[in-house]
Specification:
The complex is a heterodimer.
Chain A: H1 2-23, E1 27-43, E2 47-49, E3 52-57, E4 60-63, E5 68-70, E6 81-91, E7 94-102, E8 110-119, E9 124-132, E10 164-176, E11 179-192, E12 206-222, E13 225-240, E14 248-263, E15 266-281, E16 288-302, E17 305-318, E18 327-341, E19 344-354, E20 364-374
Antiparallel strand pairs in A: 1-6, 1-20, 2-3, 4-5, 6-7, 7-8, 8-9, 9-10, 10-11, 11-12, 12-13, 13-14, 14-15, 15-16, 16-17, 17-18, 18-19, 19-20
Chain B: H1 18-27, E1 35-40, H2 50-57, E2 71-75, H3 80-90, H4 94-106, E3 114-116, H5 119-128, E4 132-137, E5 146-152
Parallel strand pairs in B: 2-3, 2-4
Antiparallel strand pairs in B: 1-4, 1-5
Helix pairs in contact in B: 2-3
The chains are: A mainly beta, B alpha/beta.
């Protein structure tokens, strides 16, 4: 199956390149690859995972959006991916970009990005089409493993049922003295057929809709500092084609604040977020779930080596604990990265994940290793 | 004829003592040339600062001070000159530059400068494009159809 994915991917990108090449000769191809392997070393649960008996525990869910899971056997399937991007610059004010990714977990290559960029002025861009939701700091480039120190981003912040949207975004890039500002507003909607995310709850045929997605973000960078704030909202709906009793809808808001700092060889990556989900219909109608999440990591670079330690957590605070108890997931991780070249690296990561509240997938110790590159 | 001002230098030459001069002579075999940042001869821009150059090469601005959109060209990805250039203008290593551009490129914000291999090809591109900006070893700069707007001293 992975080979079929790759073939589909290559064929799609080649077709894109050929089609745009007729319109304009200036087509740039680029891409990224992450081959990620790992296994659970030990865990507190043994046997089928309570919410999804297809998963054997001890287990660990590394990628919620694609339901990439590890168990006691070494696997390359959970998080590996390859992406190819083509950008056709039609004029200096207009370009077309498409990006497809393929994963062993998915039989079909996915069109992650397909948008037109209109350069309105030296500082304003308008983009129309399909893009990644820029929810938190790494959300819109979370597939590009070469860019960050983790083997896998903390799922406490980066585990969502929708990662893309179809719509429009307006971006401004400007400077105030020596502070660089990068601001955008975005709006659109998304529909996910047979969401892989919902398999985490044992639902194999649930469609997810995000309507009225509206958000804004601002990023400031000065010297070694990068600060980013984001606010967004969406009306979400979940339709279980196997059991309508599971259907529900929410009004969702999300807020995030990231602060990154680099000084000499040291760097700090931190992010806090709050997600508020007001259940409109379904078994939890009227219940509001408030989800504070946070991640903080400290790293040190020495030549080609980078060491990094991170702590992250995710809580669900329910307005009605009789209907839905509070949940609490914690996660610490140690990473080591060796840069083979400016565009490729080997990374390894040890995770310790634990659940102080009700048991979901159980505590787990996980080992992962990756080869990441961009091209 | 109005004489063009001399291009600014990043690291102004200092008066050298005899010991330093001797040491430089001894190292002359391994010495590297200065880097010349160049634009088309018809470009009204006469000089750029290190910061302005960094802003163009990091995609933070798209235009020259004159308001003209800049066509930014980079040297080949693995050219040693590229490492020296980005270290000088931004303080970033090539690994950091690659990560910086990967984020912008794969999130659709800005496309990186186009890559052209070698001084001769960069010079040729700049001489044929009035909006272009590039950089080359200063020893390669013998073309009246391009002009130097910044020199990064080695």
């Amino acid at each position: 199956m992975p080979y079929r994915n790759l073939f589909t991917l290559c064929a799609t990108v080649a077709a894109l390149g050929l089609s745009v090449a007729h319109a304009a000769p200036d087509v740039q191809f680029s891409g990224f690859l992450s081959v990620v392997g790992g296994r659970v070393l030990s865990g507190s649960l043994h046997g089928p995972m309570p919410d999804n008996p297809d998963v054997n525990c001890p287990c660990y869910i590394a990628d919620y959006a694609n339901f990439g899971t590890y168990d006691g056997s070494f696997s390359l399937a959970a998080e590996s991916r390859v992406g190819l991007q083509a950008t056709a610059t039609v004029t200096d004010r207009f370009s077309l970009t498409a990006q497809v990714t393929a994963r062993p977990l998915d039989a079909n290559a996915q069109l992650q990005w397909a948008y037109a960029t209109f350069v309105l002025s030296p500082t304003w861009d308008l983009q129309v089409g399909r893009k990644r939701i820029p929810q938190y700091f790494y959300s819109d480039f979370q597939d590009v493993g070469m860019v960050y120190p983790w083997v896998g981003l903390p799922p406490e912040l980066y585990g969502w049922d929708a990662t893309n949207y179809n719509g429009v975004s307006l971006r401004n890039r400007s400077a105030l003295g020596d502070v660089y500002l990068n601001t955008s507003v975005f709006a659109g909607s998304e529909q996910v057929k047979d969401s892989r995310y919902m398999r985490a709850y044992g639902q194999n045929h649930t469609d997810v809709r995000w309507d009225n997605l509206l958000g804004a973000d601002v990023e400031l960078s000065k010297g070694g500092w990068t600060l980013r704030a984001v606010a967004m909202q969406a009306d979400t709906a979940f339709t279980d084609k196997d059991d309508p009793g599971n259907d529900y809808s929410e009004q969702m808001q999300a807020y995030g604040l990231a602060a990154n700092y680099e000084h000499n060889n040291w760097f700090v990556l931190s992010e806090i977020a709050t997600n508020i989900r007001r259940n409109q219909t379904g078994p939890l109608a009227g219940v509001t779930i408030t989800v504070p999440a946070a991640s903080i990591g400290v790293g040190y670079r020495s030549g080609k080596w980078t060491g990094f330690a991170n702590y992250s957590q995710y809580q669900e605070l329910s307005s009605d604990t009789a209907l839905l108890p509070d949940n609490d997931y914690r996660h610490s991780a140690l990473m080591l990265k060796y840069e083979l070249s400016p565009r490729s690296a080997i990374k390894t990561q040890l995770d310790y994940y634990w659940e102080p509240g009700p048991v979901y997938s159980g505590d787990a110790r996980v080992w992962r290793i990756s080869y990441d590159r961009t091209f | 004829m109005r004489r063009a001002p001399r291009p600014p230098v990043f690291d102004p030459p200092q008066r050298l003592g005899p010991r330093v001069a001797l040491a430089m002579l001894l190292w002359a075999g391994g010495a590297q040339a200065d880097i010349a940042v160049i634009v088309h001869a018809d470009n009204p821009v006469q000089s750029l600062t290190v910061r302005q150059t960094a802003e163009l090469y990091l995609g933070r601005v798209r235009t020259f001070d004159t308001g003209q959109y800049a066509v930014v060209v980079d040297q080949g990805r693995d050219d040693p000159l590229r490492g020296r250039f980005f270290k000088d203008v931004s303080g970033m290593s090539i690994g950091q530059v690659t990560a910086y551009w990967s984020r912008l490129q794969f999130t659709g914000q800005v496309q990186p400068p186009r890559s052209i291999d070698g001084d001769a090809a960069v010079l040729d591109f700049v001489r044929r494009n009035p909006a272009a900006i590039g950089y080359v070893n200063s020893t390669a700069m013998v073309d009246p159809r391009v002009k130097t707007v910044l020199v990064l001293r080695e």
